[in-house]
Structures are given as structure tokens and as C-alpha cells.
Amino acid sequence: MSTPAVAPVNKFAADSTLRRIATMQDERRTSALLPYLSKPEALYRREAALALASVQDKAATPALLALLTDSDASVRKVTAYALGQTADSAAESALQRRVIVEPDPAARRYLLEALGRCTTRAGLASLSRLPANLASDTAALAGQAWGLYRAGLRGLTSEEAVGRVVQLLAPTNPYDARLAAANMLARTRSLNLTPYAATLLGVAQTDPTYAVRSAVAASLSKAAAVPSVPGVLAVLARRDPDYRVRLSALRAMTAAMYAPVKEAAWAALTDPNDQVALVAAEFFLANASGEPGTIFLEKANQLTQWRVRATLLAAALKFGGPIRGAIRTAVQQRYAASSDVYEKGYLLKALGEDPGAYEFVEKAVFPKPTSLVIGTYGMEALVSMRRLADFPAEQKAAFALTLQRGVASGDVAIMGVAAEAIRDPKLGMRSLFVSSDFLKTARDKLTLPRDLEAWESLQQTIAYLDNVAAPSLPVAKAAAHPIDWTLVQTIPAGQRAAVRTSKGLIVFHLLVNDAPGSVASFVALTREGFYKGKTIHRVVPNFVAQGGCPRGDGWGSTDYNLRSEFADLRYGEGAVGLASAGKDTESCQWFITHSPTPHLDGRYTIFAQVISGTDVVSRLEIGDRIENIELVK
């Protein structure tokens, strides 16, 4: 009896050619990858095209265009994806021609989406009108919607395109098309959706999926002048069963709507989901009108969730009027009593609404903060104060000295925030700095690639003061940290990671077949206990929860960078991506999405997917601990 063959643990384990292609991708070697596009094996043609989607080199466009007629439909599909990732307008006409004759539905959908990434303004009209033979094709409808969404992200839209997108929201169209259409309306800037308000109001209340309702609710801020919009947003904020829709409704509320929606926003401060309550507090901070600061102080003192409370305290200071000093004292007392560095940081952020707190906040930052987190939040608060209209004119020169002190501090976050403020043209700092030498001294003490984000901020400010073009980012080469193929070949395709947090257990499925370098790095860091005790340092409601920073403030890194791996994956709910400061600068920080966030597709590496614990993800808050991560079968 023969012994059954044992399947390899992942696609790379038994195929050296796949490892070679992935290494060429990691090393950004376009010329070495091109010959694989003509290999007899469809597998290698497909993998080479996919590799070029990460390289994003327009020199590959002619070879990829030739592959649009490949005999294998899966090759044609990923070729369209790669062309879209390259975003080369030279591919536009070939993509348009191929859409009409492409027999495979999946490839057809990808071709249309790629068109949105590559189209010129002149070509947008053809994307807005499907050929007659595709008018009822569900794959083409989805592809058209995604294409118009991708074009909209690039600032390319038209009345015809918007009208078509609204049509694609119809309940008879597939979910994929409705999701893309809703996101196009929510994320494309400067749209006037007033003519479509009736349709949008209906979809926001009746679409069966939270993701479509949420995105359409967000888009209603662009139809704010329609009298019925505020009332519907108020109803959604109170009653929608999904917290993400309630949250989007609150975000769509504008200052002009304040009177008819404020009662719904007051009620949302005690929403059972903390993310909704936080967005309600942010609504008041941004849009309140005619309210005394005392009302926000009173509301804040009734709340237990510290982040919501601190945001209301910021509103109390902003609208404090004659009793601002008393409110400031109350906030400073709460700061002194708190033992949580993140709460203290948020209280400093609240004090950033009051120039009278300048000395208090400066003392929290200099000469040395009690924690890295407090230093970062404190420096950001000082900059926020300087942006206020009532910041004292006589204190502006002293603020410049504070920024110079921040640059010289040696702390990467304080340095980076201070440098960014110096080059902010709205602050008019250029005339106060006669030389950039102090910035160069600070820059030259940094260690690359670990301190890349601070280095970039300093370098951009040096260029600003010297009135020269900023140099390109000094991204570490693959040779500095190559893919550990020995490790990759031991990682099962179904490998899971149990992430134990102070809020509960989250389980990741690690996508080693799609992001071998990123997964290998995560596995290596996990095995050495790197993530044990780290915190969730960033939570943006209905966007991401982010952790893994060794500093705890988002400015930390390892001593190596990874190269971006842009596989054919999408940021749906529970996607796990690597944070970065730009392409090929990934390291140890990762984030989990709360809902579909397609504007991240093809821009940030996806290396895992949450397969259980999405309820825990929705409850994660800044300061929650990553107690441990364990690799499990």
C-alpha cells in the first residue's frame, strides 16, 4: 500500500520557483520578474503578475498589457489587478478594449476596477457607461462601481459618474456593487449630493447590510442643505441596530444642523458602544453652538469612559467663556489624580483647547516627560494651542523656542511633531528660524530605519526652511532584512494566532501564502515575546484598532523595515494590516479594521484576517493591553 502524499505546509514550501518570484518582488526587481510572465506554467505567470502589483513599476506595463489576452482567466484577472496597482494611464485604452471582449466574469470585474485606477478625465465617460452587452452583468456592475470608486479617490468624477453610482445603490444590484457605490459617495471629495438626497435617505435606512447603510449615512453630510437630512441622521444615530451606522450618522452631522440633531447627539453620549459615545463627544467639540462650557463640564463629570469624558472636557474649555479658568483647574486636577498615561495624554489634549494651560502642558513635556506617551500627547497639545485664534501674540516667539527645544529633545515623537509644526505654513514659523542647522544636528543623531518617521519629518522641515526640494524617503533595501524562507517554509497555510487582550481573545488567520515576509516577521516577533505587554495605542471609531508599538504612542518601530506585499486582498471587516509611514516602511505595528475600508486596498499590507473575536475588536480602546500572542493550530 502506498503512503498518501503529504501536502506542503504552504505554497512556498515545495516550490523554489515561487520563492524565487517572491524574493524578486521583495527586492523590487522588475526586469528579473518579466521573463516569468511568459512561462508555460500559468501558475508562474500569475504569480509574476501578482508580484508586479507590489513592485508598481510602470516599466512593466507593456508586458502586463500583453498578458491581458492570456489563455488562463486567473492570469488575466491578476494582470488587471497589477495594472491597476501600477496606475499607468498608458494602460487605459487597452483595458477599455479588453472589457468588451473579456469572457470571464471575474476578470471583467477586475478590468473595470483597474480602469478606475488608470483612467484619465477624458476616459471617465466610458467607465460611467457600460457597453450594452454588459448592462445587466452582475460582475460588470460590481467592476464599474469599484472603478468609479477608485477614480473618485483620485479626484476624478463627473455628474454622469455620480448619477451612475447612485443608480448602482439600487437593492437589485449585488452587494459588492452597492458597497463600492456607497464608499464612492462617502469618500469622494467636494460632491454635491443634494439632487440625490431622497434616494440616499432611503438607502441609509433600508439597505440590508450595515456597511452600505454606514457609508451612505456618512455621505449625507454632502446633502446637508436638504431639510429632511438632519431628522433622518438623528433617527439613525438613535435607532440603527449596528453601532457603525449610528456612528456614521453622527459624523455626517454638521454645524449647520446643530439645533435639530443635538438631542440625538446628547443621547449618543451614553450609547452602549463606546465608539459611538466618543464620536458624539467629538461632534460637540467640533460643532457646538450657543452652549456654555459648564454644560460640557457637567456632562463630562457624569461619564465613566475616560476618552469620551476627556473629549467633553475639551469642549468645556473651548466654550468655557468667563469660567474657562475654573474649568482648566478642574481638568488639571483630574490630570494630577489619574494614573493612566493614556488618560493623562487625552487630558493634555483637552488642555490644547486653552492657551491659558500652556505653562502647565509645557511642564508635562519638558525637561523630560514622565512617560513617552505623555510627551507625545503634550507636544501635540502645545501645537494645537498655537493654532488657536486666541493664542497670545506676545507668546509666539516663546513657542518657537519650545519647538526648537522639542527638536533637540532626542525623543523621536516630540522631534517629529515639533518639526511638522515648524513647516506648517499656517503658523508662519519660517521667519523665526534663521538657520536649519539645529534640525540637521537632530536628524544626524537618528538611527535608520528605526527612526524613519522622525527622520522624514525633520528632513522635510529642513527642506522647507532652506527652500529646497525634500529628498526621497531613505527606504531600507531588501538585503537589510530579507524574507526568512527557512521560517516561512515551516508556517502552515492555516496558521492561526491567538491574541489575548485585556478585553478578550481575538484569533487571526495568518496569510502566509499572500504575505510571506510580513507573516514571517510577525511569527518571529511573536515567538520572542515582542508583543507581550504592548498596548492598543490607537483606536479610530469605525476604522481601526492599532497596536504593537514598542513606545506605546505610535512612533515606535523595530530596527528593520519590511517591503509592502500588496496581494489581491481587500480590507473588509477584521482585516489585519501592517502600519507604515509609506510604501516599504512596515515594521511591527499592526491594525484591525472595524468594517470595510477599501481606500486602504493595495496601499497597506494585509497579513492576517480575524476569524473570531470581532466583538472584542469592536470593544478595544486605547490603553488596552496585548497580554500575549500565541501561535496555535
Automatic annotation (TrEMBL):
<dbReference type="InterPro" id="IPR011989">
    <property type="entry name" value="ARM-like"/>
</dbReference>
<keyword id="KW-0697">Rotamase</keyword>
<dbReference type="InterPro" id="IPR021133">
    <property type="entry name" value="HEAT_type_2"/>
</dbReference>
<dbReference type="InterPro" id="IPR044666">
    <property type="entry name" value="Cyclophilin_A-like"/>
</dbReference>
<dbReference type="InterPro" id="IPR016024">
    <property type="entry name" value="ARM-type_fold"/>
</dbReference>
<dbReference type="GO" id="GO:0016853">
    <property type="term" value="F:isomerase activity"/>
</dbReference>
<keyword id="KW-0413">Isomerase</keyword>
<protein>
    <recommendedName>
        <fullName>peptidylprolyl isomerase</fullName>
        <ecNumber>5.2.1.8</ecNumber>
    </recommendedName>
</protein>
<dbReference type="Pfam" id="PF13646">
    <property type="entry name" value="HEAT_2"/>
</dbReference>
<dbReference type="InterPro" id="IPR029000">
    <property type="entry name" value="Cyclophilin-like_dom_sf"/>
</dbReference>
<dbReference type="InterPro" id="IPR002130">
    <property type="entry name" value="Cyclophilin-type_PPIase_dom"/>
</dbReference>
<feature type="domain" description="PPIase cyclophilin-type">
    <location>
        <begin position="504"/>
        <end position="621"/>
    </location>
</feature>
<dbReference type="InterPro" id="IPR004155">
    <property type="entry name" value="PBS_lyase_HEAT"/>
</dbReference>
<dbReference type="Pfam" id="PF00160">
    <property type="entry name" value="Pro_isomerase"/>
</dbReference>
